[in-house]
Amino acid sequence: MTPARRRANAAQMLDLRPVGYVIGLLVSVLGIAMIVPMLVDIAEGRGHWPVFVEAGLITMLGGSMIALACANGVREGLTIQQTFLLTTAVWLMLPLFGALPFMLGATEARFVDAVFEAMSGMTTTGSTVFSGLDDLPKGLLLWRAILQWLGGIGIIVVAMVFLPELRVGGMQIFKSEAFDTFGKILPRAGQIASQISVIYVWLTFACALTYLTLGMNVFDATVHALTTVSTGGFSNYDASFGTFSGNAEYAASIFMVLAALPFVRYVQLLNGNPLALHRDPQVKGFLLTIAVLVGLIFISIQSVFPHHWEQSLREALFNITSIISGTGFASVDYMTWGPFPVALFFFTGLIGGCAGSTACSIKIFRYQLLFASIRAQLQRIRSPHGIFTPRYDGRPISGDVMISVMSFFMFFTLTLGLVAVALSMTGLDFVTSISGAGAALGNIGPGLGKIIGPAGNFSTLNDTAKWILTAAMLVGRLELMAVYVILTFKFWRA
Description:
Layout (H helix, E strand, L loop, with lengths): L2 H10 L4 H17 L1 H10 L5 H21 L9 H19 L1 H5 L6 H12 L15 H29 L22 H25 L4 H12 L17 H13 L3 H8 L5 H4 L1 H24 L4 H16 L14 H11 L14 H19 L8 E2 L2 E2 L2 H27 L4 H12 L7 H4 L10 H15 L3 H4 L10
Antiparallel strand pairs: 1-2
């Protein structure tokens, strides 16, 4: 091969250096974040702090070496290929390094368990393989919460900056909204990401302060604020949010709803548009869905259990909000409520919150687009000569958006089925397999049944099942297509 030919081939190859540079920086930041739980462990005095020193040094050194090795390839922007690869690689690499404290620390977790827990944290899924949480060092418990908090802010930025550009699952419908505050154009993606981060921090602070005023101690309030606003659901108690009751459940429900709303609307509020949330059809649809589901569960509980109406309403509100937002907190074992609530909880988890929030699963806007398309099709059937165009928020829905949404629904359903079948092949029963697949792919947290239900965890699953679920969490968090596209042969061709 001639030198000219080799240079031409090299020019056509995907340049991984810009991707590696960003990943290296983010891994280094993750290592710096380990200082916080280290300080908490020092204050607790149980001698667990050297774990975070060791894990932090490994992480910072590893990230720095990756960044330095790729620094000569830094450019102004990224290509579409590099953006797809970066989006997936970040959520793959950070859990690998984030798993180190679990392997080196008090849990002495095996590699599969540590990666499962870290992936569950970074994807804000909330499924756990650890039990005896009440007795673990505080630093390790805080680290689980920090992973979810970082994953929450990370997915908001990805959803508002990357996914619309990548045209993933209909997210291109929000491409202009990410930078257009009803007439006020934000100059750079960095500015909106910065404002979202400030809002995210203040929302977390407000949540923690609310929990404090309701009787939680500082540590409990901090951990649960981090995992509430990130809609992650990790708790520092085996009983999850069942450790608390009463007004704390109402407060958590409010903040889970706030975290599941589109953060770009909060940015617009700050930029002088007081009606930003009110005008968003996602917000209206999401709140209406919660109200209907809570009403159904409330009626179901009242018809079976002689609870006081306030307790029934509180438990229905908290647990429905927790599942639909993908938080995964549980205040009671709702498996005892009967078959109808259990079935409703399964399908509730597949609804999800709003796009551009920390919530997960299919997202409410995709259902709205789907119903708009169905309504237009029914109108065409009734009036064959009429012209009916599906609309969203008063605007016509373009064909490429509908194709993306339909493709997302198809791939989600197909992936859900394949994951459930794969789990059943590892020896799991039907309920555990299908609910586990939904919990992982929708990043919901708890599944159904005695094993992985709200009163159990994922610790007793076999290693193969844990790896399958770990992969499903990653795929689901990144809206499927962002991962699937890099698995195609043509992606790696220039």
